[in-house]
Amino acid sequence: MNKRTIIVSGLACTYPLGGVAWDYIQYLHGFHKLGHDVYYLEDTGGWAYDPFNVTFTEDYSYHIKYLTDYLTALDPDLAKRFCVRDPSDNFHGLSQEQLTDVVKRADVVFNISTTLWLREEYQGIPVKVLIDSDPMYTQAGIPDYLAGTASEKDVKNIEHMKLHDRFFSFAENFGKPGCLIPQGVFDWRPTRQPMVLESWDTPRKPASDAFTTVLSWQPKESGPVIGGVQYGGKNMEFLRFIDLPRKTSATLELALGQGRPPREMLEEKGWKLEDGFAKSTTPWLYRDYIQDSFAEFSMAKNAYVASRSGWFSCRSTCYLAAGRPCVVQDTGFSEFMPTGEGVLAFSSEDEALAGIEAVRADWDRHSKAAKKFAKEWFDSDAVLSKLLKEAME
Prior knowledge:
six-stranded parallel beta sheet; Glycosyltransferase
C-alpha cells in the first residue's frame, strides 16, 4: 500500500446531528484505519446549524466540542486530525499554519457532497475528487447548462464542480438504461458509503419490536425540475404508503426531524412517532436508537426512486452494520445488489408488507444476512481502497 496524505471534507461540525456525523467521519476513520495520513477539513464558508434553536449561528463553540468529543471516542488520534475553518476565518483544531502544511503535502482531497469551498489555496492539491451523495439534485442544472439557459446559481455550482479532477456518485446506475439522471459535463463513476463495521457491531438483541427509521419529511428547497418533471423528497413517496400501518400488526415507527411533517395525519394512520432530534442529538444516541430497533422500514426520496438511480441509504448501512434488517424502497439498487435476505426491497405496498412479515417470521436469519450484506458491500477497507485507487489512476 502506498501511504497517501488525504483530506476529506463534510458537514459533521456544521450540522451536529448523529446521522450526519457518521456519514462523513466514516471516511476519516476508514482511511485512518487503512494506515493513511488523513485529515478532516470543514470549510463551507457558511454559518453552523444550531439544532436546539433551529437556526444558524456564527458561534462554533458547541460544534467544535461536539466534533472533538466524537473523534476522541472513535480514536484519540483522530481528534488531532481535523480543522474547521469558520466564516470569520478562525481555525479550530489544526492551526492555519498546520493546515497549510497539510494542504501542501496532500496527494488528494475528497470533497464529499460538495461541502468544501474549494478556495484557491486548495486547488493546488494534485487530485481533487468530488463525491455526489445526492444524485438528481447534483445533476439537475446540467441540461440547462448545456443548453446555455442555466440560472446564475446553477452556472456557479457547475463551474465550482468543474474545478475537480475525478467524479464519483452514489447513483450506481448512472449511465445505464432506465436511469434518468442527466448526463454530460462530468464522468461519474460509482461509489458507495464506507462503513467502519466494528464501530457498529453489537451483541445485544433489539430493545423493541419496532420497524424504525430516522428522517426529515420534506427538504426546504423544492426538488429538481428536469425535462419539465418535478421531482421531490421522501414525503412524496411516503404518501404512496401512508395507509400501511393499518395493514400490518407490526409497529412502524418514525423518528421525525424537520420538513413540516403532518404529525396528526401520520398518527391517525397508525404510524408511531418519535422525536428525531432526541434520537440524533449525539452520534451515540443515534447509534443506540438503531441498535435498539428490530429492523428498518423506510421510503427513499422521490428523486432517487423515480430516476432509478441505484442510490442506497447511508442510514440503512448503519442498520445493516448493526445486524438490523432493512425493508427499504427500491431505487434500482436491486439491479446489482442481491436482495431478499437482510435487505428486502419493495416498490409496491404488497412487497412492503411481504418484506415486513418475512423479517418478523425469521429475524435471526435476516439479522445475520444484514451483517453479511454490510461486510460484502460497505466495509470501509474495501470501499475506500477501491475509491482511492480509482481516484489516483
